[in-house]
Structure formats: C-alpha cells, structure tokens
Amino acid sequence: MIDRLIERIKETGAPIVVGLDPMLRFIPEGILRDAFGKYGETPAGAAEAVWQFNRAIVDEICDLVPAVKPQIAMYEQFGTAGVEAFARTVGYCHEKGLLVIGDVKRGDIGSTSAAYAAGHLGKVQIGSNLCAGFDEDFATVNPYLGSDGIEPFLKVCREEKKGIFVLVKTSNPSSGEFQDRLTDGRPLYELVAEKVAAWGETCMGETYSRVGAVVGATYPEMGAALRLLMPKTYILVPGYGAQGGKGKDLAAFFNEDGLGAIVNSSRGIIAAWQQEAYAGFGEEKFAKASREAVLVMREDIRQALESR
Amino acid sequence: MIDRLIERIKETGAPIVVGLDPMLRFIPEGILRDAFGKYGETPAGAAEAVWQFNRAIVDEICDLVPAVKPQIAMYEQFGTAGVEAFARTVGYCHEKGLLVIGDVKRGDIGSTSAAYAAGHLGKVQIGSNLCAGFDEDFATVNPYLGSDGIEPFLKVCREEKKGIFVLVKTSNPSSGEFQDRLTDGRPLYELVAEKVAAWGETCMGETYSRVGAVVGATYPEMGAALRLLMPKTYILVPGYGAQGGKGKDLAAFFNEDGLGAIVNSSRGIIAAWQQEAYAGFGEEKFAKASREAVLVMREDIRQALESR
User: Fold this and answer.
1) Whole-structure pTM value
2) Cα B45 to the chain's mean position, in Å?
C-alpha cells in the first residue's frame, strides 16, 4: 500500500490526508435533523449523521487526495453504532478509490497486538474462512510496549502489503513530557525513530518502507532531525491547520525527492464551512467548502516545497 | 468505582480480575458448532460464540470475583460484530454485579482522548440527550502522549466516579525497550509512575485514587519499587499464569493493608478446561473449570500475602 500511496500522491500532486474526525458540532443542521428524525437523538441517529456527513465530503474530495484518516475515537464515542459508521466509512472510501489510514493508535503485548493487526489490517480465521475485520490500508500504532507489540503488525504488513505509522513525536502540547526525555543524551523520540527505521528495513516497499512514523507539524525542527534519521520512512504529519502547524513548517518533513511525508488536516477541511474564509459556501454546500479547503492546502504545501 | 472495587475485593477475598479475552481456540466445539450453525463461519458467528462462551463463564465466576477485564482487541478482530459482542458482554457483566475494566489502552491528543473517555467511561451529548457508549467502569490508558492526553480521562473519572489504569510497566518481554530507558539516572516507567501519583491526587476516592497503574507480574522487583512510589494507586497486575508471573511474585504489588493491587488472569481462567490440571471437567463443564481455576488462584494469592 505504501507504493500505491506514493503513486496516488504523485498523481494528485497532493501529499494530503483528510482526517474524517466528525464531531457532531461540525455537521450541518439539515443532516442532523434528517438523521435524528429517522433514528432519534440516539447513538444510531448520531452515527447516521456522521455517515451522511462523511459520504458527502468523500464524494467531493476523492479525486483530489490519495487518502483519508478516520479517527476511530470520534466513532467509538457513539458506541457500537458509531463503530458501524466507521466500518461503513472505510468501505465507502475504498469504493471511491481512497486509501484509508485508520487512526486507531493501537498497541499491546504480542498476542493482543496480533488481534488488533488482524482486525484492522489483516484477516482472521473463522472456521474454514479467512475474514477481514475493518480492513483499513494503514493503521497508526503506539510504540510504548516495545518491539513485541509491533512485530505482529509488521507480520501483517508483510503478508497483506499493508502499512503502519508508529507514533514517534506527537503534535500535542504535552507530547514532550515523556517523548522528549533524554536518555544517553538523546530524546526518547529519536530512539523510537531508530526502531521505526529498523522495523522498516524488514518491511520495504519499492523505495519507502511500510513502517511509517507520526511526527507532528507543530515540531518542525524535530521533524527535520527525524527526517534524516529515517530516510526511507514515510512521515504522517498531523497538527497542520487547527492545531497550529503552517505550510512553511512542512518542508522539513519531506525528502529532496518531494516525497516522504503526507500531511493531515481534519477540522481544517471537514469543518471548513464553519470558517470565515469559506462562509460563502453556506451550510448546504459544506462539502464544496471542504473541496476548496483541500485545494488551498495543496497550494500551501506546493509553495512550501518550491520555496525551500 | 475505585471504592466499590475495594469493597468488592474485601467481600470476595479475591483481588482478582478475570480477563475475558476469548480466542476462538479457547471455545468448546459445541458452542462453535451452534454459533456457526446459526450465523455461518462469519464474524457474526464468531461473535455469537464469543458471547455464549463469555456468558457461561460470567455466570460461574460472578460471585467469586469483583471484576472482569475484557480485552477489546479480541473483539475488534471480528469487526463490528465483535465490538457488539464486547458491548453485550459489558452489559451482561453489569447485570451480574461485576465491575468492568475495559482493556482498551486508548490514548491520544486532548480532543481525541476526550472522545475516547466519553465513549468508554462517560456520556456523549446527542441533541438533547446524554448517551453512554460502552459504559465500562474503568479503562486502561496509554501515557505516551503525556498529560494532555490523560486529562480528559481524569475529567470523566471525576464527573462519573469512574477510573483508569495507566500503563506504567507492561508485562511483555520487550517492555523495557522504551519503558526502562534511563533519564536522569531513572527509568522512564518511574517518571510515568510519578505522574500517575500526581494525576491521582486530583482524583481521589476514599483511600485510593481513581487513577490506577498497570504493572506486569513478570517484573516483581520493579513492582515493589513502584508500589512505594505510588502509595495511593491501585495497581492492575497482568501477566500472572500464562505469561509466567507466579503467586510469590505478587506480594510486592500489595500494600501492608492487603489492598492496592488486583491481579488479572485471562487464559489461565477462561481456558482452564484445556489445561491438564482441569481436564477432569471435560469440554461441557468448561465454565466449572474456570470457577475452579479462580478458587485456586485466590488461594495462591492468599498464601502469597500471608507468607510475606
């Protein structure tokens, strides 16, 4: 999938992933009214609204970007109905030719990670059948438990040609509390990055490995250092837009070949219609506002890469 | 819930949590046959088998132990049908008076952790309704993202009187890869432990805090040090039994008052019928074998605490 991701990035000229992280407050009144009218103000109603919202946005952006990244927390908050909307969204994105990065941040001891890897990326044996669970193309993974928690994901990545993005340096303000701790004079996130590079060596696509890294746009200097430490690693960069990361900060995350990074924006795209800059679209054309926001972001990144 | 947990530990004399982590290979042939007969060799069939298996075990152990700990990975591997079986299991355990520790190891940036906390422990606003998602009593949480990823869980713990167990030192062989790294001469897990104690101060029950810690039974010396660092923290101890932790290793995790720790066993209880020691029960009485395994474990812990 890493090769397919790179191919689609080249085709679209957009190293962009759209975060499908729908809070109910991002969803236009009309969609909420219809969904609640059908299922009540219930988890099923919320899940229906989320699904209709996602579908409209996916229809508008699927030709512009290579991938989406649904954040499963936003679905789990509505219980099983929400998780069904997650699965439905993954399936629909695939129909529309989009790659799906499941932002699930799973990670556990070996045998448990194997179940997560099977459920999100691979297949599980049920009687004589092999069945896929959520069937994302990539998943985000938490490294705190060490190699034996990662290995089952690597195995599935090799078997199914799928990929993972391991948390290295996250975009949030307190990410440094543990991740920046110096050990032998070097921050923990660099040790994680070295492991990511080593895991990636066992799991190569054509030019980049299937083991990516998450490094927040909010820490561009660290991004530059990590870029050098992990030359064959694709970096998934959250934190652009709403969290404060800017286009000019992004260049550091890319390799000389213009590849090696894919930048996520969630609220900045899916709730664009609520921003002053896109107010002209109005509530009814919310998905068109998202499309326009993708175009603006694509241009911002293009300029950042050109002017370096 | 921490006070209720302690009350039930005292009543049952069993500081034990049963891990409801059903792999299909743990499930007797008869249950699988019925479930596959009804729903086919499909995720729905697997989920039905898991649910019937769990229910039979819960019926046999609910008077003996205070709590169960379903590992959500074992459910997610079967996609949405599996997640429904998870939710159903949580509900049934509550009916039977058991506390439920959702072993979900979630953790993300602030706004996303808020959605996880709402979905697993709290409530979410849907129109004019406040709706619970999975409604566990406790959840396990990954600390790698730092305080702002934990804070939303603390907020829900305060509001709903629920609890979390933060990963400090996990039971797996490679847990030391990052967790044991020395920073200023001290291992990272101790820094996490100090944070756990500090977070707990803001979130106290009567005698222990609502912020617990996960420390593996496989590292009893570290357990002893961590016990002292976090005097008001309940420690959830995985790794007993199948992973190699023994009764005599457990004493270090408890305070002088005989409280302060709760020990998990998963395979050792739910797949007891497959062990030689319990072979006499046969496949049909698999749940009785689980009951007997709980009694043996209770005695093992009692002796470990008495002989210290």
Assistant:
1) 0.97
2) 25
